[in-house]
């Protein structure tokens, strides 16, 4: 009897993961708008060292600080250990936004369509609601990215507006749909984790 491949694991990102995360993100961004993949990023090229330093900076901040970040990594162990996806929550620029976070996520093309996006979202949503005490999660998704839009809608995100002609990438005009998920009733006070 053949063994089925192990389900990729989701683990909280640690500072020691920043270099591998940067390498993965550079690979992932290069897929945007290529070989039939819809555009999902405003750039297709990143500098790994800058991505690594930026992640280290965000992941080191307390939730009470502006521009904090918390990430979870989707990892496989075979045929070689590597990151194949991620989700990150990022805090706002000012303390008065501390009740919200912005969602950024991605999965390498060959690994999409297998339920990993839903698993990543479930992990981040549960943490945001139950541990961080956040009230809302926000995200932007390009109008051409139907698969991502459907996933976000299934997870409870609702469209709250569209920025038409928000970005022009590789000669393609992209509308940016803003979506929000309410984690608790409006006005309910919470005490976010620190």
Salient structural properties:
194 residues; alpha+beta; Aminopeptidase; 7-stranded mixed sheet; 4 helices; 7 strands; globular; GNAT_dom; Acyl_CoA_acyltransferase; MshD_Acetyltransferase; N-acetyltransferase domain-containing protein
Give structural notes:
The protein has four helices and seven strands. The chain has helices spanning 18-29, 48-60, 116-131, 146-154; strands at 9-12, 69-76, 82-90, 100-107, 136-142, 158-169, 172-182. The protein is of the alpha+beta class and 194 residues long. The chain starts with 8 loop residues before the first strand and ends in a 12-residue tail after the last strand. Strand 2 (69-76) and strand 3 form a beta hairpin. The longest helix has 16 residues, at 116-131.
Could you give a quick summary of the protein structure above?
The protein has helices at 18-29, 48-60, 116-131, 146-154; strands spanning 9-12, 69-76, 82-90, 100-107, 136-142, 158-169, 172-182.
What topology emerges from the helices and strands here?
Layout: E1 9-12, H1 18-29, H2 48-60, E2 69-76, E3 82-90, E4 100-107, H3 116-131, E5 136-142, H4 146-154, E6 158-169, E7 172-182
Helix pairs in contact: 1-2
InterPro entries: Acyl_CoA_acyltransferase, GNAT_dom, MshD_Acetyltransferase
Pfam families: Acetyltransf_1
GO molecular function: acyltransferase activity, transferring groups other than amino-acyl groups
Write out the CATH superfamily name: Gcn5-related N-acetyltransferase (GNAT)
Strand arrangement, major sheet: 1-2-3-4-5-7-6
Count of the separate structural domains:
1
Structural class: alpha+beta
The number of helical runs is 4
Global geometry: globular
InterPro entries: Acyl_CoA_acyltransferase, GNAT_dom, MshD_Acetyltransferase
GO molecular function: acyltransferase activity, transferring groups other than amino-acyl groups
Organism: Sorangium cellulosum
Domain N-acetyltransferase: 24-184
